[in-house]
Amino acid sequence: IKVANDLRIAVDIGGTFTDVVLEEGARRLTRKLLTTPQRPEEAVLEGVRLILGDAGKAFGDITVFVHGTTLATNAVIERRGARTALIATEGFRDVLDIANESRYDQYDLTIEKPRPLVPRALRFTVPERMDVHGKVRLPLDEAAVLELAKQLKTEGIESVAIAFMHSYVNPAHERRVRNILKAELPDLWVTLSSEVCPEVREYERTSTAVANAYVQPLMDSYLARMQAAFVAEKFKGTIYLVTSGGGLTAIETARRFPVRLVESGPAGGAIFAAQVAARAGEKRALSYDMGGTTAKICLIDDYQPHTARLFEVDRAARFLKGSGLPVRIPVIEMVEIGAGGGSIARLDALKRVTVGPESAGAEPGPACYGRGGKHPAVTDANVVLGTIDPAHFAGGSIALDIDAARGALERDVAEGIGLSTEMGAYAVYEMVSENMASAARVHAVERGSVVNQYTLVAFGGGAPLHAARVAEKIGVQRVIVPPNAGVGSAVGFLAAPVSYELVRSRYMRLDTFDAAGATELLNEMSAEATALVTPGARGLPTFERRVAFMRYVGQGHEIMVTLPQRPLTEADTQALREAYEKDYAVLFERHIPNAAIEVLSWSVQVSTEAKRPEVQGKAGTAPAPKPVGRRPVFDGRSGKSAEVPVYRRESLPPGSGSGYYVSVSSGQEAQLDYAYQGSAGLVGLQYARRNGEDGFRVHGSGGLGFTSAGVMPARALDE
Question: What is the β-pairing status of strands 307-308 and 311-313?
Fold first, then answer.
């Protein structure tokens, strides 16, 4: 969301780094500093103070503050949430264990299911029962609830999730239990499944409510501290949180439903990549975001990231659906793996080099940080290879210790397999690149896409250093490394619209379609979503999208069908059938004539407009300036080091260096070994192969300018 004369700041908290971006008109400044895991707001405040100092501004000048974080996700993965209890309908205590009765690997007899956030000893039930139509079959036993309140107090429960059968139709019993518990235990956090996920599918609804309850005390405490600190600094603007679906929401809503923030940081990255793709005119883009802790892959078609209604946290098996804890929320669909700059490298029992998913994080960090880290990480490998300049890491804010990096790699990797330190570093580089290439292949196959038909958009602190190798492995022919790549997610936050989406289940069949009932439900949802969006829209117009989730009767999964933005009538039945059958045929190449169709759920999204950038014109050619220096870079394929010229990105005009391998050194606003800010616009790289020699040719792509990805041997290509 952008209004003229705004001074806007975005902050993205990652597992290792906290990224800060300031925009005022056409001016953009960036900062990157280490995350403070115990009190994340400290890094946020320090980063904002630093960037305001760079801009000559004060807290009172900020009009919009946008924030995204992986804190909720990390709390689930690391099991650092609140002591949480679950209250279910009598007879349904084991919903979290029974799940949906499927096995993500049916032939593995030693399969490990994800560990529930609430142990069985803290799952309780009370007598009550609603039927599928919302009628009371068994009244709520309020005396049992009062007894349960005493037990919750004895157990030291901080937060509770309430998930009753069919509460998505009639939430009366859940609401009554909340009132009783709050009267007895005023400090207890209470999450209702009928509010956080009012949809069918008992396991997913219960799991989502539990996840919200589990992270709510942590997230609410953090957001409250951050908000109070901003007020103390005389901040008078508006605070937004980025949701997993890529929209902005008010801080009050985020504190109520923190489960919607589980993928807020990565969602900003997908928005950033979509904006980059739009400027480049690339309708198919593969978003590749590698930070300090994780790497994320997301497919973008027609300048829009793919979205989903279900996300799995903490997968037991890296690429297998069903191996994680399901969270049913609107989310930008992506695959996420533990492959970042801080991912720890080691040898397994078979003397194979493995990388991640464990990360050194910000404390102590990789060995080269000099903060007590003893184990080698991906960043250590890049330092030893020479693709990172130790003196300019994170814009020069962190001086790296190359001797510590070499020592850790030699001790934990190279010696065990009889390699030199440099070849050990290359082995780590190669393995982490293969991990990310595998993630890209699997994600594309799951979506029915051909990955080598996409353009790779690389950003985050580490992705541009690995983009060339990943692109080669998956067959991608074109890579874009945009300006501000190291803080791409935070830049993406500033392009996100204010938005909120509601999904509710109400069953009906098309052959007995209740148009009036459907319209009444959609209007109620529209009013609720509009009330949440309007205060944050700051006078900007909003638009609405209405959707029905439909399937053939008896099938297990639904297809999303867009609805007209008006009251529905009985005459719409045929149009809905035709729309469903058209979408069904796209997925399965045929439809089933005259088969009965049913609607399970309805969705309403209210949002401000997200403007698509204009495609930039073609760039010409220009001579490259003189390099600012040279340094050795180890080439693992030849086993030798090569002297590589180093350039400052902001000094390279569009089209410069065409036909050559070019390395780019960091400018003042850059991190790692490439600059992000400069007049040349976006970066374009084209993969070239000639006489068995692989490399990337710098060229003007779509007028987006020159480029390079990381540091590569500088030699002319024979075209």
Answer: unpaired
* Tokens 């994780």 belong to residue: 294
Look up tokens 């319209």; give the residue: 519
Q: Name the 3-class secondary structure at 348.
A: coil
| CA distance to 94, 120, 193, 206, 486, per residue, from 98 (Å) | 6, 12, 18, 12, 42
Is the CB of residue 486 less than 8 Å from the CB of residue 671? yes
- Other CB atoms within a 10 A radius of the CB of residue 149 amount to 20
pTM of the model: 0.84
CA-to-CA distance for 353 and 417, rounded, in angstroms? 9
Residues 43, 28: Cα–Cα separation, whole Å: 20
For 92-142, the pLDDT digits (tens) are: 999 999 988 788 888 888 887 888 999 999 999 999 999 999 999 999 999
Selection from 548, 501, 531 nearest residue 252 by Cα:
531
- 120 exposure class (CB count in 10 Å sphere: 0-12, 13-18, 19+): exposed
Residues 677/650, Cβ–Cβ less than 8 Å: yes
- Contact between 444 and 476 under an 8 Å Cβ cutoff? The reply is no
Q: Which residues contact 230 (CB under 8 A, 6 or more apart)?
A: 59, 65, 239
* pLDDT tens figures, 358-415: 888 777 888 998 888 889 999 999 999 988 888 777 766 778 889 999 999 999 998 8
